[in-house]
Amino acid sequence: xxxxxxxxxxxxxxxxxxxxxxxxxxxxxxxxxxxxxxxxxxxxxxxxxxxxxxxxxxxxxxxxxxxxxxxxxxxxxxxxxxxxxxxxxxxxxxxxxxxxxxxxxxxxxxxxxxxxxxxxxxxxxxxxxxxxxxxxxxxxxxxxxxxxxxxxxxxxxxxxxxxxxxxxxxxxxxxxxxxxxxxxxxxxxxxxxxxxxxxxxxxxxxxxxxxxxxxxxxxxxxxxxxxxxxxxxxxxxxxxxxxxxxxxxxxxxxxxxxxxxxxxxxxxxxxxxxxxxxxxxxxxxxxxxxxxxxxxxxxxxxxxxxxxxxxxxxxxxxxxxxxxxxxxxxxxxxxxxxxxxxxxxxxxxxxxxxxxxxxxxxxxxxxxxxxxxxxxxxxxxxxxxxxxxxxxxxxxxxxxxxxxxxxxxxxxxxxxxxxxxxxxxxxxxxxxxxxxxxxxxxxxxxxxxxxxxxxxxxxxxxxxxxxxxxxxxxxxxxxxxxxxxxxxxxxxxxxxxxxxxxxxxxxxxxxxxxxxxxxxxxxxxxxxxxxxxxxxxxxxxxxxxxxxxxxxxxxxxxxxxxxxxxxxxxxxxxxxxxxxxxxxxxxxxxxxxxxxxxxxxxxxxxxxxxxxxxxxxxxxxxxxxxxxxxxxxxxxxxxxxxxxxxxxxxxxxxxxxxxxxxxxxxxxxxxxxxxxxxxxxxxxxxxxxxxxxxxxxxxxxxxxxxxxxxxxx
Length: 713
Description:
With 713 residues, the protein is mostly beta strands. It has four domains: 2-295, Neuraminidase; 298-504, Immunoglobulins (Immunoglobulin-like), CATH 2.60.40.10; 512-588, Alpha-Beta Plaits, CATH 3.30.70.1070; 592-713, CATH 3.30.1330.60. 15% of the residues lie in helices and 39% in strands. A hairpin with a 5-residue loop joins β15 and β16 (224-228). The longest helix is centred in the C-terminal third of the chain and has 21 residues, at 653-673. The radius of gyration is 42 Å and the shape is elongated. The protein starts with a helix and ends with a strand. The model is unreliable at 1-21 and 57-69 (pLDDT under 50).
């Protein structure tokens, strides 16, 4: 008697497939399945399921081989009742031969089903090998299934069967052994276009093999479950899962036991969460329908987790020359966070929106000299499930794993499941885990996601690598090694999750031939030149008023140079005179003529040493630019020009003033002699009073010896 009890207990356990280990699924044979007949390929319909069975008096075809225990009928079973038997689904759909499997549209009033193409005639005629399976459709008129139609590509030379309609009704999947496939039976689909089904399209070599693929089921997210004896499995037909990846499919993954077994397992249907459903299997000799319940959702695909990065390198690689002996680079990250240097590393507190500014500071005065760059920065976490946990753990100590920092905009997380790579699984957004053995573990987290826009359920997963060590000292050693081999911060411009919007780039303006100027004031109200504000402004500075109508602001500017460094002496002088809000700015010239003139000065240069020899005679470079200026002034006859010459401070100031005036007039005379009216020209020598660099060293004095051409009004 004891032996009998143990045997019965063992059989019960085997029938429900609960193992001592944490099973993925719980499986139970349905009460309407029989030992003598086949029941297979269930689909949901209203308050029950519709399936195929050969529980009838015929004797033609089985689900698998086309021979044996009876032709198939379509049956219905009410899963809300306590009945143990199913009933015929529809007399109007029943034929003498094989009917089913079936699929329904979302409203349940259209059916697509497989059956033999010929259903009338003698037993010999309808049992012919030419009487292949095809797909037919019908609609429900409230009482009966009517308007039975066959698909246009049914063919007596090959089978088309096991249809599955996508939830949106726009695509029909099926199996066929038509020619030019990859194996015996392949999976195909066709699209509903212009009120008819298009030509069959093979699902490709990722899904199909040299073996047989059939019985597709499509989820609302477009994922597919199907059976195959060609993909590596547990034996015979197994059920596999795949999902789209762009216009391709990911390599199929076999469902875990006990759904799959060493026998034929096929014809699965699930709810949107894949938390419960039905499938077919012949593990008890005849094909039966089994009900399954998911204990721990299977994690089908995972990506290796990308670590969110908030530390970056910022560097100025622009074209504007800046002498760091006189000036400082100052990166302003907001919230009074500033770093000095041409290249700096900065860590933001986390994802969010930030403003970054690159200022140039005068070392002597400590004041802002120039703003080189402004941009808005939005840092985002990677759109992925995210496992928050230590990278290192000690064997025997508890570790907390959390998925709460997953960043998946547009989705609601409805469940979490964990697989720790050692046979242990848990569920929940935050779990504790103790690893008993040292080693490297692949911790997988699977998520069920609901789209906020469509409500469709999606599967997603992530993998994080965890190293488990023996003790605290070993942990410290690994941390030290990791710190020493840490890669330098990456350039912010190369980070894929940083969205940079350039608000201002001086380099871009510089490339467009803008001019450097000193802005000493800006005001909503116009300021007269006789205002006391300008009383300390030396006469050598030509004050210009610039009105910006879009901002409604008047700005007051002096100086005009093609290089930034040339403004520094004037900037310092103005600061010492009390104009401490003076800053260098880049502005585009007002006219096409001025833009072209700036281009000439950049091309030919402005150093006097390139214009005059030691005896004050014109050099070849001077003739080149002067000839271009003649062309320019003839092109714009309304313009007038001032020619300026400056010297260094070597020698007497009066002599330098005389030399500069003489040279300015020499340049003007060349233009006059070649047809430019003297009324359009002004020659002015400034001598040494407007330096653009220090006069301490020859390399700087050379910069002060210069020529300038300006259009005047």
